[in-house]
Every structure is written in C-alpha cells, then in structure tokens.
Amino acid sequence: MQESQIRKIIKNVASRKMDAGEAMKELKFLPFEDLSFAKLDHHRALRKGFPEVVFCQNKTTKQVAAIVKKLAERNSQVLATRATEEMFNEARKHFKNAQYNEISKTMIINKNKKLKKGRIIVLSAGTSDMPVAEEAAVVAEAMGSHVERIYDVGVAGLHRLLSSKEKIDDANVLVVVAGMDGVLPSVVSGIFGKPIIAVPTSVGYGASFKGIAPLLTMLNSCSPGVVVVNIDNGFGAGYFASLVNK
Amino acid sequence: MQESQIRKIIKNVASRKMDAGEAMKELKFLPFEDLSFAKLDHHRALRKGFPEVVFCQNKTTKQVAAIVKKLAERNSQVLATRATEEMFNEARKHFKNAQYNEISKTMIINKNKKLKKGRIIVLSAGTSDMPVAEEAAVVAEAMGSHVERIYDVGVAGLHRLLSSKEKIDDANVLVVVAGMDGVLPSVVSGIFGKPIIAVPTSVGYGASFKGIAPLLTMLNSCSPGVVVVNIDNGFGAGYFASLVNK
Amino acid sequence: MQESQIRKIIKNVASRKMDAGEAMKELKFLPFEDLSFAKLDHHRALRKGFPEVVFCQNKTTKQVAAIVKKLAERNSQVLATRATEEMFNEARKHFKNAQYNEISKTMIINKNKKLKKGRIIVLSAGTSDMPVAEEAAVVAEAMGSHVERIYDVGVAGLHRLLSSKEKIDDANVLVVVAGMDGVLPSVVSGIFGKPIIAVPTSVGYGASFKGIAPLLTMLNSCSPGVVVVNIDNGFGAGYFASLVNK
Amino acid sequence: MQESQIRKIIKNVASRKMDAGEAMKELKFLPFEDLSFAKLDHHRALRKGFPEVVFCQNKTTKQVAAIVKKLAERNSQVLATRATEEMFNEARKHFKNAQYNEISKTMIINKNKKLKKGRIIVLSAGTSDMPVAEEAAVVAEAMGSHVERIYDVGVAGLHRLLSSKEKIDDANVLVVVAGMDGVLPSVVSGIFGKPIIAVPTSVGYGASFKGIAPLLTMLNSCSPGVVVVNIDNGFGAGYFASLVNK
Amino acid sequence: MQESQIRKIIKNVASRKMDAGEAMKELKFLPFEDLSFAKLDHHRALRKGFPEVVFCQNKTTKQVAAIVKKLAERNSQVLATRATEEMFNEARKHFKNAQYNEISKTMIINKNKKLKKGRIIVLSAGTSDMPVAEEAAVVAEAMGSHVERIYDVGVAGLHRLLSSKEKIDDANVLVVVAGMDGVLPSVVSGIFGKPIIAVPTSVGYGASFKGIAPLLTMLNSCSPGVVVVNIDNGFGAGYFASLVNK
Amino acid sequence: MQESQIRKIIKNVASRKMDAGEAMKELKFLPFEDLSFAKLDHHRALRKGFPEVVFCQNKTTKQVAAIVKKLAERNSQVLATRATEEMFNEARKHFKNAQYNEISKTMIINKNKKLKKGRIIVLSAGTSDMPVAEEAAVVAEAMGSHVERIYDVGVAGLHRLLSSKEKIDDANVLVVVAGMDGVLPSVVSGIFGKPIIAVPTSVGYGASFKGIAPLLTMLNSCSPGVVVVNIDNGFGAGYFASLVNK
Amino acid sequence: MQESQIRKIIKNVASRKMDAGEAMKELKFLPFEDLSFAKLDHHRALRKGFPEVVFCQNKTTKQVAAIVKKLAERNSQVLATRATEEMFNEARKHFKNAQYNEISKTMIINKNKKLKKGRIIVLSAGTSDMPVAEEAAVVAEAMGSHVERIYDVGVAGLHRLLSSKEKIDDANVLVVVAGMDGVLPSVVSGIFGKPIIAVPTSVGYGASFKGIAPLLTMLNSCSPGVVVVNIDNGFGAGYFASLVNK
Amino acid sequence: MQESQIRKIIKNVASRKMDAGEAMKELKFLPFEDLSFAKLDHHRALRKGFPEVVFCQNKTTKQVAAIVKKLAERNSQVLATRATEEMFNEARKHFKNAQYNEISKTMIINKNKKLKKGRIIVLSAGTSDMPVAEEAAVVAEAMGSHVERIYDVGVAGLHRLLSSKEKIDDANVLVVVAGMDGVLPSVVSGIFGKPIIAVPTSVGYGASFKGIAPLLTMLNSCSPGVVVVNIDNGFGAGYFASLVNK
C-alpha cells in the first residue's frame, strides 16, 4: 500500500503529472508511514514460521477470542499464553483444531507440523516449577525448535542431572527454571559450558519474596554464560532460546 | 542535506535522468534518514529559543569541554547542569561570557537576553533544598520563562507561604522542592489550585532513604494537581514547567 | 454565613452599635473561619466548570450515595472515580441521568454538555492499561477538555504511534499510560517535544512489582519533558492535564 | 507460692532448722521465680484501672472466647481489638454487657464507667482512616482518658482543622491518623505545638505500598514533636496517648 | 503590624472614612496574614523557655554562623544539633559562652541555667549508640527537663538494666536508643510500664541496613507503650520526651 | 543397573573379551552414573532413621498421594509438611495408620516408635506462632529427637520463660519462634548460653512485612549463638535442631 | 557484694537480730540484684574456656584499649574482632603476646594453648570471601574447636570440593561462606548431609546488593540442614559452630 | 594421576592380579576424583580459544599478579577485568605484551591474533555507559568474536540507531547497554528482531537506585527476545554473546 503510494508519486513525476516541488512535499510527509510499512514487512519476514503470540493475562475471554480470530485469519499458527480453560473453550467453538496444555496454560491453533530443528533443553528444579518450564518448552516448539525436558533436577537430585550429561552436551542452549533459592542455573553452568537462560519462578515462601530471591541468585551467578528473564517468564525464555537455537 | 538528496532524486526523475524504478529503490532506503532529518528539524523548531542542555554528571571535564564547544558552534545559548567548578574554568578559557551558578552548579554560555515570559514560581521547603530549586529556576529562565523564587517555606514557615499568596495566584505553574517528609507540595496544592511539579530531594537522613520518603509522599499526594519528577531532578522540573508556561 | 457575620460586625461599627475595640476583638478570632470561607470561595472560582470528584475506593456504597447526593445539590456536575456497578445502581435510583463507564469505573451525574476545549491526547501501551487510560480521559473531559485516545501503541506497535504524528503535533499535552517496562513515555517524548504526564500501571507480573518497574522507568526518563503520577492514578493525570490544557 | 517458699526458708533459719549456709544456697536459686512474682505484682499495680487487652487477629473465635472468659474472671473490664462480629456473638453468650464497635472492631466487656480524665484528640485525614482512628479512641477511653474526635480533616479540609483550633489547644496529646501521603501530622504539628502520635494507615493504592509511604512521611516529619507507631496500629497510639494523658 | 492594619480599617469605619462594603472587601483579603500573625504569636508563647534549634547537617559553617547569630539576638538560649567542631569554633568567636558536646555534636549558646524539672531517663543498648543517646539527653535538658543516662544496657547487660529499677520507676518517660537488632525498647517496655520513645540507630552492619532493622523491630514491638522516631533522630526523641515530661 | 554395567566391563576384562585400553575408555565416561549411584547410597546411610519428607505446598492432592505411596514402599516412616486435610483424607485411604496434626499441618505414615533421644526445646512468643513452632517440634520428633514445648513466652510473659530455667538448662539446642518484632531469640540468648535456631514468622501486620521485621531482628541479634532460617520455616529449624541434637 | 548482703540478712535472722517478716521484706526487693549476680556466675560457668570477645567496629582505639585491658585482668584469653592495625599496635604496648591476623582483622591476647577438640570445616566460595571465613575460623579456634579450612571452592571449583569429601565426612559441622549468588551452601548441603552454618558476604556488585542476594539464596535453600547468620558475620558463625561442635 | 589409578586397576584385572569383585569395589569409590578429572578435561575442551578470565575487583594487586602469572603459564591468552592501572603496571613487569584498556579497565596478556568470527553489535545509550559497553566488547573480542560498537544512541538519538539499520540487520546477537530508565533494549528489540542481551548500568541518580531502575525495565521488557545480566556486568554480556555468536 505504502509502496504503491510512493510508486504513484514517482510515476506522476516521471509522467509529468506532478512537478518536483509537489512530489518533494508529498514525500516529506511519508517517512513515518514508510517506516511503519518497512517495519511490518521486515517483521513479517523475520518471524516467518514463528507464531503470533497472545498474552492472555489481564485480558477478558471476549478480548482474547477476538484477537485470536483476527490473527488466525492471517497466520498459519496462533499461540496464546496464560490462557484460561474458559478461553480455550471459547476458542474451540471457532477452531476445531485448537489445543490446550493444562500445565503451561498455553493454547495453540493450527499447530505447525513442520520438523523441529536444533536442540533446546528445558530443565526445572522442582515439580512446582513445571508450569513455567512447560511454557518455555511449548513456546520454543511452536517456534520450530526441537525441545527436550529434564524436570525435577534440583540440588537434591543432582545425580539425575549428571546422568543426563550426554543429552545436555548435544544441546545448543539450555533453559533452566528454578524457584526458592534459584541455584540450579549456577550449578548447571558450572558443570556444562552451555549458554543458559535462567528463569526464576515465584514458587517458594517467606524470604523468596515471590521470586525475588531466585531472580537475584541468577543475576549474581558466579558462573559466566547465564542470562536472566523476568520471574515466571517461561515465554520469554522459550522465545529467546529459539532465536539462539536457529 | 537529506532534503537536497530527495530533491535531487525527484529532479532526476523529472528530467528523466532516472527512471521510476530506480527512484523507487533509492527512496525506499531513505526513510530512516528522512526520519532522522525530520526529527532533527522538528526538534530544532520545537526547541527554538530553548537551550541545548549538557548533563555533566558522570562526564569528564574534557568530555564536557568538547561537547560544549561543539554545541556553541550551532546554538546561540548553551546550558550545562551539574557542572563542577573545574568544568567551568575549562569552559571559560574558550568562552569569555561563560557564567557559573555555584549553588545550582549550572553553567551558561552566550546567555540569551530576551525578555522572560509568563510566570513560574519555584518554592523550596528548606535551605538545603536550594541547589535543586535553583537548578529548576535557572533551567526555566534559560528556556525563556520568567521565574520567581520563594525559598525556605516548609511547614514551620507556613505563614511565609501564605503571605506570598498574591504572587502565587498569578503564576501559571509552581515547582515545589522538598526533602525529608516532602509534605510541602501537598500543602501548597491544598491551598492554591495551581498545577504543581513536585521535586523530591535527597536531603534528609535515616528513613528518608536519600529521597525515597519525599518521593513517595509526593506520588501519593491526596491533593490533585501534583505531578512528580525524579529525586533531585531540578532540571526536569524546570524544563517541564517551561513547556507548560509557554 | 461567615461573610454575613463579618458584614454584621462592620455594620455594627458603622452604625456605632459596636466600638472599634470590640470589633477588633471579634475579628481577631475569625481568621480561620475567614480562611475556611475564603478558601472555599477561591476554590469554587478556581474550579468553575470543574466537577467535584468522589474517590469511591475504600468507601461503602452507602457512604458514596450520601456524598454524591450532597454534592449534587450544590454542583452542576458530579464525577465519581473507582465506582463499582453497585454504587452506580444505587446512584441511578436518585439521578436518572447518571452515567457509568464500565472500563474506567467512573460515574457522572448531570454531565456537563459544554463545548470541550484545547486538546489532550491519552496514549496507552497495551489493552490492559485501558482502565487507567480511560479514567484519565473521562476526568479530563469532565473538566472541559477535548480529549483524543490513541490506545495500544506499545513498542511493538511503534508504527501506529508514528502514523498518529499529526494528531499528536496538535496536542497541548499528552497523557501516556504504560505498565510492565513503562518505556512508552520515554519513546514518545524522544519523538515529540510535548509535555508528557506519564502514568505507570500495575499491569504486569513478576519483577514489575505491581507498577514499581514502570514507575521507576518513568521517573528516570532520559528524555526531558516527562512528569509522573502515582501507579494507576489515571485521575491525577487527567486532572493535571486539564489544568495545563486550559 | 514463691513467697511461701521464701517464707519457709526464713522461718527454718529463724527456728534454727536450717543454717545460714544452706539458706543462702537455697535462696541463690530462687531469683527468677521471685522476679516472676515481683513482675506480676508490679504490673498489676502499674496497670490498675487499665483494661487487659486481647489482640484477636490471627486467633480463632474459640481461642478468643477462652481468653476473654479467663480475663473477665480477674478484671473489671476486658477490651478486645480486631475482633470479628462472630467473636462478639460468641462473647455475648457469656457476657450480657458485652459491647461491639463495628467501625473499630473493638469489643468491651464490663465497660468501666468511671469519669474520663484529661483530653486526647484523635484526628483523621480521610473517611477511610476511621477504623484505625476509632480503635485509638476506644482504647484510650477504655484506659480512662477523655477523647474527642475530629475526623476527615485532610489537606483539602484544612479549614475544618483550623476551625477546631480551640479544642486542640486544650488537648494534652494528639493522635493523628492518615494514609496515602500521610502529611497531616506534619501539618498539624506545624500549626499546633502539641505532642503528636502519628498513625500511618494502609489506606491508599499504588506507591502508598500499604502504608509504607505515610509511615516514611511521618518518620521524616520536619516538624518536631511527632512520634510514630506501626501501620494501622490504632491500639498502640491510643495506649501511648493514655499513658501520656495521665 | 497586621493587627494595626485591621485596627485601621475598623477605625476608618468607625470614623466613617470607609463604608461597610469597602471594609468588608479589605478584610476578606486579610485572613492569611492574620493567620500568619496569629501563628507566630501562638508559637512564641508555646515555645517560651524552649530553645530555638538549628539543624546544622547539610548547612555550611557560614550559614550556621549567620542563623545562630540572628537567633541569639532574640532568644536567651540557642541550641544547634549535628554541628561540626568547625562550626563551634566559628560560633565561639562571637559567643564566649558557647559550649560544645563532642559526643552528641551539639552546641549551646547562652545556656539556660534554670532548674531542670521532672525526670526523663535515656537508655542506650551499646557504646556505639551514645552519640544519638546524648543528642536526646542534651536536647531534653536544653528544654528544661531533668535527664538521667543509663548507657550500655543491651540484652547482654540485662542485669544492669534491672539494677536501675528504682531510678526507672521514678521516671515520667523513657528514651530508649538501640541499633542492630533494636530489641531493647521491647524488653524495657515488657519490664517497666513507662511510656517509651524508641530511637533506632544506624549502628550495625550487613542486614541492619543502616537502621532499618532496629526501626522495624521497634515499630512492631509486641509490648504496648512504645512509639518510634526516625533513625538516629536523638533530637526528635529528646524534644518529644520533654513535651511529655512537662 | 549402573553397577551391572561396570561389573560387565570388569568381567569382560577378566575374561579377556575386552582389553585394558577399551575398558579404560568405557569407564572414563561413567563417573556421573557412578556418582549418582554412590550418592544415593551415601544419602541413604546418612539419613538412616530420618524420615523422608514431602513438602506439600504447591503440589496437588494427587501428586502428594503418588509421592507418599512411593516413599512408603521403601521407608519405614514418611513425613509430609504443609499438608491439607484433603491430602490427609486421601492418604488415609491407603494407610490406616496415617496421622494428621491440624496445627502444624503435618502428616505422618508408619510413625516411628523408637525412643526419642537428647533434648530440643521449642519456644514460641505468641499463640499465633504455634503452627510454625509445632512444625519444628513434629519434624524433630519424627527424626528421633526428644522435644519439649514452651509456648507463648513473649516479652510480656518473660517470667514464664524464667520459670522454665531448669528445663532449658538441660537442653542441647533451642528453637525459638517469633513474629512481629521477633525479639524473643535475642532475649533467650541473653539469658541462656544455648545454641538457638531462630524462626521468624509471618505473624503480624503493617511494618512486620509478612516476616521481614522479625527476620531482620534475628539476623542482627546482638547476642551470639543465634542462627536463622527462612520465614515460617519450622521444618528447617526442626531438621537442623535434630542434626545438632544427635 | 550482693552475696554478702544476702548472707548478712540470713545471719541476722540466724542470730535473731532480724525477724522472719523483716527478712522476707528485704529479700523480696533483691531479686534483680540476685538475678544479676546469678546470671554473671552462670555465664562465667557457661563460657569456661571461651574467650571474652570485643567487637571493635564503631569503637575508638582508646575505647578498645581500655576494654581489652579490663578483660585481660580477669580472663586467660581475650579475643577482639574487626580490630584495626592501629588497635593492635596499641594493645601490643601492654600485652607482649598479643597476636594479630591481618586477613580476619582479629586480635588475640594470652592465646589459649589447650588442645583443640572436634572438627569444624570452614569453606569459602571465593578468594574475596576469605576475611569473613577467617574470622569464623579464628573465633572457633579461640573457643577450643579444631578447625580446617577449604577455601575457594565455588561452583567453578566443584571438583576441589568433591576431592575433600573424606575430610568433610568427618566434620561435626560446616561453616560455608559465600558472596554474590551464594549458592555454595545449597550445593554443599545437597552433597553432604552435615549441619551447615551459611554466611553471606557483601562481596559482589550490582544486584548482589551488598550481601542481600546471597542472604536470600541461603535463607531459601532447598536443601534442609542450612541455617544462616548476618551478612559478613564470620564471628557469629564461628561462635555457633563451636557451641554445636562441643 | 586419577587416570593412572584406573588404568592400574584395569591392568590388574587383565593380568588377573585382582578379581572382578575387588575391582568393582575400588572403582565404586572413585567417581568424585573421576568427575574432577573429567570436568577439568571437558572444560578445557569447551573453552578452547576462550581466554581464562580474572575478575580483579576485591583482589589485591599482589593476588592478581600471582594469578595472572600462573594462568599465563598454561594459556595462550589471559584476560583480566576490572583491573586497576596499578595492576597493569605490575603485570607489565613480567609480560611485555600486556595491554590495558583504560575505559573498560580490562587487561590482556598474549593477545590472541586469530581472525574474529561472526558479528556481535554492542550498543550503548549514553556516553557514561561506555565503560560497561567496552567491557562487553573487549571480552567478546578476546573470545574470538567480531564486534562492532554503536555508542550513544539513546532515545534522543533514535535516528542514529535507525541509520545503523543495515549493520544491525547483519548481526547475530546484540548487547544493549543502558542506565537511568534503561529503555534502549526494549526500543531496539521493537525495531529489530534480533536476540538482545540487555545490560543495566549503575549510571543515573535518584530513583535509578544504582541500576535497579534499568534492571527492572529490562526484565519487564514488553518486547520478546530480551534477556538480562547483572548491573554493570559487561563481562557476562560479552561472554554470553560470544557463546551465542559461535
């Protein structure tokens, strides 16, 4: 659209329907729209094969339904995070192939069936960290990454971590999810030299302060190669891991 | 420059030196520069008569000298905040008319002598808040605003505040600077119906936590018409007050 | 009442029913009531055309009903913020023309129909910030300002922001509402030179700490011309914007 | 008991059943019980006329009933704070004269009818601060103090505060209750020279952080003569005021 | 001055030089000055015998010298807190009788020699808390109170506290100063039924967070009768204690 | 499994099916599995007689039931903390001898009946701290320690503490539980020279900040011999006390 | 003294100079002094072989010299922590055998040469944590414990930790010192089943917030058997470890 | 060593000096040493071409010199961060080819001259953020990555950012460094779809709280693809970027 507008001005100048001064004036006011246009295009290219993602928290079932419908018209696959069961039920009315993951609270419509590539490993410290870990895993898969899960490998289960050594050695990037003391990413990073995306969770009580304790632990990791996302932000971790896994 | 580039392309098309396709291609890659250009232009217009401002904190005397010199080439007036005396001495070597305000730590080169307009009143709670209050006043003056100062009118000097009633009634906007408990903006707003820009200062001790206490007091003001800037940010308050005073 | 008291004393002196000493004595004890009286008067003048505003949060439906009733007797228009639907239903029993805005949770009685003046633009970063943005917009409109809304223009929708360039260039003041990272005010301020009232919202999760993250972002804005109000304080932003818009 | 033990030892020495060395040895190990005994006595004397107070929060209805019953056996008057209506209903089964204050959530059994002495004034900034203010007032009354209430005199109602000047001038001590920005104690202290017990409340939203903002404001009061108690601690303020009012 | 103005208006009415309407108009604009006038008077009465106090922190030696000189002209006694030795040396040039307390950093000019009344006891937990404790003691003495000091009676020295039982029983009010864990006020309040003004100090390290830990301990004291002032605010505690001691 | 793998390699070497070089190579890649194996063994030995403990918070009834069942197959005694009544009812279906403690929310299956050894004393400041204190006591008992309880001995009941002197003098280690101001551990440590495990609780309101206040008090204890666990972490205190009591 | 007073009363009764009633009365007022006396005695017994410890921080060289001298008169061994080199030089003037540890900033006079008993192991994560670790070690040794040091065994040096397995298995209690992310205690506790006293240090930068990050990590340790002391409190850890090691 | 031990056991089995059972037993107790050994090896492989890095902060010049010397014996290249000029001067005595970067405070010995690969772009918001940005750039280069720098492109210089569009489009990963409001990573991420490692700096004043404000902004970024490292942690960002860039 924008492009055709510019094209039209150029043509008009070329065909002398418009003089240089007028063309200049018109063009001077277009940059933003051009930018807008370019950005959209660029992004579409960039995100090819990536799902459009709806963050459902703080939205009504009605709002989510409307957004999902609109996105599904123009995208092969739509992913929604932090979706309630009610949102899923509403979505299923319009999309027979809608799928819901109860643990991660994610919903996918027109799930992409292309081969998953590379290898991301998602590790979690405890059973209670699973919703966040699953969100990361589902998002990365939806973005086309091959994902393996190694859950419940906290400090007390260090041996299980070590017994997965070979799997981990083959991964491109690790997502490590932990609440409470949040030490798992430091430990994993100390043993394996992989890039680690650490996700603090709000699991814990007392002085874990809803995720502040593991967040600080991870930010202060003595072992290099650890980066951090927001508390409970499985989505962000899965998304970044997929960017890196490509 | 940018403008001439566009003009040239248009002319080339008009004079058939370039065909529509080529022109299209050239123009597609310009938007950012256009934007850049537009923004600069727009800003220059917007800021007409406004000083370019250098924030000296965290910069070396050498860096400040270089920036001031460059700005002075293209601006009638240059304002620097949080400047040390050393920076001023360095600047004075090149600019005979450089002026330094010891209290506000501001430095002005080629001071604008146009008539000041409107009326901003800067109030401060205590003597120790003066550096911040002066910074606000000097910045607003440099931007062309007429400024009056009413200092040291904390709760204990409420009567002095009240005795300035008429002056205050004539102001367009008030800047109210206070540390410690930071109650002055609430009190001033309760008495006068003026828009107030509240500036918390780091003056105080113990539970004032370097300005957090007055910042919170001001953000929670029960009296409407109070907005807040960062702790010790006299510059931001003076700048905003001038935008509103126009 | 107070006024008539003073008048009576004056008259008594004029008519020699009271001598100067006695009058002096009487008047010496009046100042507070005078102040009270004056302040009310002064404020009434100041707020001409402005609604009396009831902050409903932490009040019972019964309390709100009583206050609204009392205010409606003496004011042409009454505005209530953070009102529940129950409060609205109670109010409608007495005021047929009561109106309720479900998104902003505002209620207006005897809505003023005068022409709106000036131009305030309220921008919001995300859909979830709408309740706060609407509160700002409704309050500013109730105070007689012409308001335009540009919602959902966060960083990911920067192009939509840019495509509203002309509208924004005509505004006197902008209210910019954002949760989570709260970067929108900085970005808007960097592009447009307008005075901006930034409103952090409690929208977000994890390390957004119910609005602390966007509050800090806004207070530290590197771009001058940004002032801040309390988290979720759409009312304060709309009120201040209207004071400035006049 | 303890007393009789000591008496016995003394008697044994007096009657030569025990020699000085043995008595010395026995007595050396008694101090704690003596202390315990003395302390109880001392406290009973100290608190004469003061109610035994039960803090009901975090206790079950059953626990409160048991404690109240036991206290009522040995005290003329029993006061319970933060009591639920359910607790009151339970208490009324055993104590016909039990009284309940719905606003302050206080319950009194065998209410003391002695003449109230001195004068404490309890001021509150807003309607929402009333539960805390009432708790202070009820506690002070139960401890025998004469209490007057001046509510809803925040910054916007400063004139009402001033119109109560004479009443306040006669008071021994003031309790000033405020949430949000918590400026009232500073303002009252600036006008009147009275000792002030400031009570921050959790009333507010956003950056009031459930009472932290007014707490800090009060702790940093620029006006001397202000002391502070815990957030929402009406009981502590009323109790201390009564100690001072005596 | 203000008074004479009112008097003049009244006289003019009485002498028919001015009619009732004009007088009314004039008087309507005076209240603030009246208030101002009244407040000054009232305060002067209130503070009779109390020292004017200069808070020297954040002021220059020059500023302090000027303020002290001005105050000394109109007051019998001038007290300065947080004064440096340099400030004292400057003051001594003009006031031969200036006295300096090295521990509390207080300076007194024209020290009042009237008999001290009542009894305030200042207790401190550790040797390092002495500067704050001394500030409280010196301020209270300057205000005419009889003060006794019991220092270094922390938990480890509980027996020394108990051995001062009789002294403490005779006091009207206690000032209890403590850093680190700040438990002393709770303990003292549990043993003695006296009103206690608790002063947290910034003495400590690590998780004492420059006085936050003892501040919170004191605000949460389980023992009623404890009120709190700002961290290191010996002045505020001594001032309030004197108000109560009267 | 791992063991059999190693055994197989050894056998192959012994039977000359594999030469030393190959065996070396194989074994070099096994250490982790060996570690895993060894660690399990070592831990089993270490914890002999100690219950396996299930932390039920953040787990579903179904998850807890599955874990408890699995543990009960291999352990003589299973302890679950923070269990709901629903979880207990589910567990009782499979384990007739399951016991539930309503106050501490602990559940034990196949309760160990061996003689308890040593002496741990659990003290609590208030009635509301009992759930946490009981959790500590039940855990320590399940681990084979003899435990005595002295509850409700806060500052106001200091004499009751002192009257338990002899009991306390015989203990190996004390667990001291307190919310609000959290002063009890400091006081107990000042009187008795015993090692103290201090447990802050979230009991309190306002500036106790859900346990932060007592946590800080305890961390800053002026009396040596005090260590601290997480807020409300009765389990951790009981566990550590048992390790020390052995 | 106190003892002789009691003795005198007893004698007077025995010799009939005083009757039982009078004696009773006298004794009733002694408990506090008795307590004081008893407590001293008790403590002396308790601390037999333990050093009297002087905390030098916030004290002057002069004050420390005086305290050390006084303690040395009555104790075989005196330990001072956080002592400066200046303090040591002052002490050495009077005590030839004074020893100073530059790393831990501890000073010992009349060092006890008795055989050290039991086994405490002090581990530290990094080189920078050594001052705190050494303080713990020196204090424990001064209290008669046998101490071994294993320093610089952070996550990156996990293998060094594991290679010290046998030493650690023989210890009674571990002191684990770490700054930054503070994960070492969790890791050590996951591998070894020993009671661990975790000491967070202020070593780190940025979001380690001078020790808050490791403090929170340690308080939230997922591995049971970990207790925590104040940031940088090597003394407290060494003291508690010695109590437990006995 | 360890390896030879295993080899010996295998040989003994092969030569029948030891039977399978004994060998099994021996090997079962080796895992830790094996692990230690393996880990070292693994790490050496992993880090091939990567510099050993010395974090100099909190270390003495002497300590740094010793560590650098030891590392230089076994590594081709040694990198030291947060090194002082004094440390560099000391190092230069032994290593003629030592290089020092005054801005980033980094020191390199035996600088690797291999071809840099891939493309990392390091962007910074302001001049004051340069030390942190340079640290990231230098570390990434030392690890073999090709790095480009785009500094001083904050919100006010958005156009400069846009004019670097093509460069940025070719990068594998971006490091974005910003203090104060920390909005740059969000903005960059909104325009370009690249993985971004955001580095908050302690540059700023007032409510930037030494980097907390930009840290929170970055953690809450509304634009996916942003991960965060500790405040001022240029090293961590450069290290992670290099892992990803490979």
Task: Give the key terms.
homooctamer, 246 residues, alpha/beta, 5-stranded parallel β-sheet
Residue-averaged pLDDT of chain A, rounded?
Answer: 82
Determine the strand fraction of chain A and express it as a percent band: 15-25%
Class computed from helices, strands and strand pairing of chain A: alpha/beta
Largest interface: A-G, 31 and 31 residues
User: Widest sheet of chain A: strand order?
Assistant: 6-5-7-8-9
Description of the molecule:
Eight copies of one chain form a homooctamer. Chain A is of the alpha/beta class and 246 residues long. Chain A has two domains: 31-110, no CATH class; 117-245, Rossmann fold (3-Layer(aba) Sandwich), CATH 3.40.50.1970. The first copy, chain A, contains eleven helices and nine strands. Chain A has a five-stranded parallel beta sheet, with helices on both faces. A four-stranded mixed beta sheet of chain A has the order 1-2-4-3, with helices on both faces. In chain A, helix 1 (2-14) packs antiparallel against helix 2 (20-28) and helix 4 packs across helix 5 (85-94). The longest helix of chain A has 16 residues, at 31-46. The first copy, chain A, starts with a helix and ends with a helix. Mean pLDDT of chain A is 82; it is low at 28-49. Chain A binds chain G through residues 125-126, 154-156, 158, 180-183, 186-187, 189-191, 204, 206-209, 212-214, 216-223, and chain G through 125-126, 154-156, 158, 180-183, 186-187, 189-191, 204, 206-209, 212-214, 216-223.
